[in-house]
């Protein structure tokens, strides 16, 4: 009601002109829609959360992918000599640190997304109530809806990035490495895996920007 009064007072130049039937009817429609959205905004948000969850499930095919070294490459590592094993141990330790850092950034990005949702959901009722105001006031709800959708659809963008990462990792070594030595193939395989994971972190962190631009924010 407060936003309705603010919008009415800011738009009213001639009170007699504003008391026409069509003007009153239009204002009552805005007030009724605002009241309905305020009362049902949580239900609408739950429907979006459920739909996005189902969409992410379809993208990931309902399965979880475990990251593991290929059995062929594992056998090659087991058959290395002392010097080669020492070099490979140092390299794998360095790559493991990089992968752990990348995993931390992915977890942080997902956690921060949940934090944003926990903050914007309680503000839904206030944003929906601005629909009762004039065009300038009701623009708040339009902006809120766009931001809410961008936050929700970030999960889809993140899922797509992770699925593409799994596809690259499971693709194996490039064809031109067939003539390389076994230890060189293993080295390329580990570097390729680490690089793909690092690219996935960049894609997941860029999901917010990409989704926001898609919604015109």
Automatic annotation (TrEMBL):
Chain segments annotated as transmembrane: 86-108, 114-132, 144-171, 183-204
Say if the entry is tagged with keyword Membrane: yes
| Keywords of this entry | Membrane, Transmembrane, Transmembrane helix
Return the protein name.
Conjugal transfer protein TrbL
- What is the originating organism of this protein? Agathobacter rectalis
């Amino acid at each position: 009601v407060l936003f309705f009064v603010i919008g009415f007072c800011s738009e009213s130049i001639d009170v007699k002109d504003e008391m026409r039937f069509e003007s009153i009817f239009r204002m009552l429609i805005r007030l009724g829609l605002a009241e309905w959205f305020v009362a049902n905004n949580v239900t609408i948000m739950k429907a979006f959360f459920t739909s996005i969850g189902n969409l992410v499930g379809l993208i990931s095919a309902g399965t979880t992918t475990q990251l593991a070294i290929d059995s062929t490459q594992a056998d090659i590592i087991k058959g290395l000599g002392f010097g080669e094993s020492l070099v490979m141990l140092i390299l794998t330790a360095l790559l493991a640190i990089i992968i752990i850092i990348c995993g931390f950034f992915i977890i942080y990005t997902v956690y921060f997304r949940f934090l944003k949702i926990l903050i914007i959901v309680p503000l839904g009722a206030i944003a929906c109530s601005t629909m009762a105001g004039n065009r300038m006031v009701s623009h708040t709800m339009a902006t809120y809806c766009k931001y809410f959708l961008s936050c929700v659809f970030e999960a889809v963008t993140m899922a797509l990035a992770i699925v593409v990462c799994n596809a690259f990792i499971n693709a194996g070594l490039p064809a031109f490495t067939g003539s390389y030595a076994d230890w060189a193939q293993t080295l390329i395989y580990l570097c390729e895996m680490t690089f793909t994971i690092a690219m996935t972190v960049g894609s997941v962190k860029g999901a917010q920007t990409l989704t926001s631009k898609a919604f015109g924010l």
